[in-house]
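Hi everyone,

Forwarding the result from last night's run.
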Amino acid sequence: MRGVTTAPGADDDLPVLDALPRLDDLPLLDDLMPWSVAPLRFGRSWIVAPDVRTLRVRWDRLTAAAGAEREALFRPSRARTPSSAVAALPGQRTGTVRFARESGPCPEPVRVAHGPFDEQWLLPDHRLIDTARPELWRVAGEPQVFAVEQGYVPGAAGPALLVTGALPEGRSPAGRPGRIRPLFRRPGGREPNLAPGLLTFLTERYGHEVDAREWLAWLLAAAVPSPAGCRVPLPGDPEVWAAGVALGRDLADVQLRGALSGAKPRLPGGRRPYVRAAVPARPEEVTYDAGDEVLGLGEGRISPVPAEAWEFRVGGVRVLEQWFAHRTAAAEPGSLEALGPAAWPQEWTSELLDLVTVLALLGARDEERAAFTATHSVSREDLRAAGVLPVPDRARRPASVLDHQEEGPEGQFVLL
């Protein structure tokens, strides 16, 4: 490959940098994927749970209460109270009467990414969510995917960008604000969320037609965190681009749990994590034994768990520890948050086994990914000269989506 060398003792196919470019010279993802949305703000934790049954129990408990008891269980905020008048979320068939008068059945929960690699369930009721970002709901669903830019944490380990097919909450595990960038601006995979002219520029540079999914693959392989937001190295060598795209497609397929390849991610060599000792009803801590590759959940034991899975971090926070904390954190007695499974469900263990596999596969590719983050790059000046930058203001705003019929407060029709 032109312009690259290999590190001493590294695989000959692993590209690295001859000389690091200046970070400030790299274009910002904010300019190249210009439409972005701030994280959702749920406002009350009881509307999210790792299992559907818990949400139904909480809904039934809330709607069975009345008056002051219902309001206390609801947990009012400045944005939402039981008396708030709120439109329905796009694509969701939920009630729009004021929640103080709600007596109907529980709405069908939807899958959301409640933090990195942690898919849970949400009650998709706009009356319950402080800041739901309706513009995201309008474009969610196949074949949409969301690039979730993690909040910058100086010196923190972990990828700068993650991808998910579920609607993401978008908050970074370290509490820093991130950004949600849909790959497409319209439903049905129409109109890539890219700077006008970018795909044409990449197509001419790399000698073949580059589409939005190829672009996303390169991002997963090469995006670099910075205080100003993710920056994107763009190599001069088509071979480097092709190698990065191949890696990024693998990373995307693992993060999307095999949605691209149609095959569930598996560890190489036939290895597979198993439950060696049953997880107790209420495990109080998660531990790791590196020597035996054992993940402990109280008295429960899961192995083999590669070190790459245990050490995998996002925003400096260990993913497995946060995943466990989301399921075992103490809740205030008598609150809706306190309503949950009486014992650790089998489905959580199955999800944990899959998560271990995902994190191990991603962690094993970190060295390869690091090489692409340091590749020779196209500068922002090059993109200005090509007319890609600056980005027009219209590209930073959501597209008009006129094929959605959305119900307003108290059953009124909404004009979009």
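The first strand starts at residue 4 and ends at 5.

Cheers,
N.
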